[in-house]
Amino acid sequence: MASRCRDGGRSGDPTGGLKETQTQQEPSGETEDAGESLRELPRWMRLYFYGMHGVTLDVLLSSVQGFLTHRDLKLVGFSSPYLCIMHSLTHFALEKIYSQKRCFLGRPVVFHLVFYPSVYIGLQILIGNINTLTEQVRVVSGKQLMVHYILALYFSQVFHKWMSKLQYHPDLLQSKPNPEERGDARWPLHGLPGVVRFLFFGMQGLLDEVIFTSIFNLVEKSDRTLSGHTSLWSFLMYGSCSFVVEKLYLYLHFKRGWGTWRRLPIYVGFIYTWELSWGLVLRQFGACSWDYSHYSHNFMGLITLLYLPGWVCLSLFQDVLSNVLLRIKCTKDVDGSSENGEVNGQLEKKQL
Fold first, then answer.
1. Rounded Cα gap, residues 63 and 51, in angstroms
2. Which pTM does this prediction carry?
3. What pLDDT is attached to residue 216?
4. Parallel/antiparallel/unpaired status of strands 228-231 and 328-330
5. Which of 31, 75, 32, 131 is nearest to 288 (CA)?
6. What is the pLDDT, as a whole number, of residue 125?
7. Cα–Cα distance measured from residue 89 to residue 95, given in angstroms and rounded to the nearest whole number
8. C-alpha–C-alpha distance, residues 208 and 214, integer Å
9. Rounded CA gap, 322 and 249, in Å?
10. Which of 230, 249, 246, 303 is CA-nearest to residue 273?
11. CA distance 208 to 300
12. C-alpha torsion sign, points 253, 259, 262, 264
């Protein structure tokens, strides 16, 4: 989910003393892996986030373009599972390119304003040329180049720096000693701010809808392009809904000790209530992007029991996502020097 950023200007142990600390606690065979697991998110997690983030940008750009053209408040945007995979691979490559900024020491302007944007734009044009879903991107206009350049600045100046703050702690949830301490308000500890988890859940919701609609179009309309669609309003809907469901999970699971199937009806009931509430509000402004009136077992065309299996699956997946996010911490400094400095300080005290 996040890229590792290592500056060439840093000196000393690149692990910030973590590896030496682990050596005192674990056998030498596990030293490097344990120290590294505290330094960066796993590769699969970074690839997953890159794809999800890329789909979100696709939906954002296409929905804004559609609104400017048609003034449609439904804010429908488009992407596809194919583009999700391409975003994962290209941004993984950009992660490697960004790590080469140490070669531009003393010339940060050249890297951030010329080299990185050039590579980014080249990769985006490559995606467009081999993407059969969007024929119009084969000829890149000046406006598209400007958008790509702005996005390149966003990635080099904001995205990579912010993502390098994240650390993965795989054993974080296993540190709870006794079931009797479920009532401790401090447990489980959150490593990510609420707004970050909200953004993650919103992007996950957009990805879910793009995948679902692409499969629906393939089955019902024989659309082999796997083009999917969703609405920007879904970002707010899924983000807020999953944020509340996560709170229910933390309380019912960690505080009350409820099992999965005991929590599930509460999850599904809240999801239906949330979908109905949002639909009623958006319909008043002509912004509701869904209508289930042609489905059986629907209520006001805003909710339907036919989607119950899907909501059950997403509810189960929600707990998985929450467990992943609970294992991610955010350091204060971009390079993690704040946390590493604290570890080094403790190590020095032990040595004295």
1. 18
2. 0.78
3. 87
4. unpaired
5. 75
6. 81
7. 10
8. 10
9. 8
10. 303
11. 24
12. positive
